Amino acid sequence: MMGVGAVKQDAKAMILTGFAGLVAGACSMAIGEFVSVYSQLDIEVAQMKRENRMVENQEEKEREQLPNPMQAALASALAFSLGAIVPLLAASIIGDHKVRMGVVVAAVSLALVIFGWIGSVLGGTPVVKSCVRSLLGGLMAMAITFGLTKLFGTCGL
User: Fold this and answer.
1) Structural domain boundaries, residue 37
2) Is 0.90 surpassed by the pTM of this model?
């Protein structure tokens, strides 16, 4: 959305792009997570077989500890969708282009801090460090997307 906002002031185009990005990103994240976790599962099962650790009384416990590719894919798609809906909602209520861009940046920044906080609480990591890392990473991504799109848009590419 930041890229489209850099070169086009039309709210409809920005919202449509945001929705397309939400769907494409959620699908991409889910598929990537599924493939990654399934590969991890294959490695862990192969390792367990090599070590002959699958004795009957341990087998059920060990199977419960194995990663679930479908669960990981769904969690990734949901997390991406929740994050992507924030700028989409922010952009859909503002008419003025400059105000819309500012609101999108502000809403996304707040969401990044909240997601950083949630991640730190769930992971047991330092809250401030996690929030700052999430915020700075997101701001950098928005700035790079905006800047490169603005550059390409003004060069007529």
Assistant:
1) 2-155
2) no
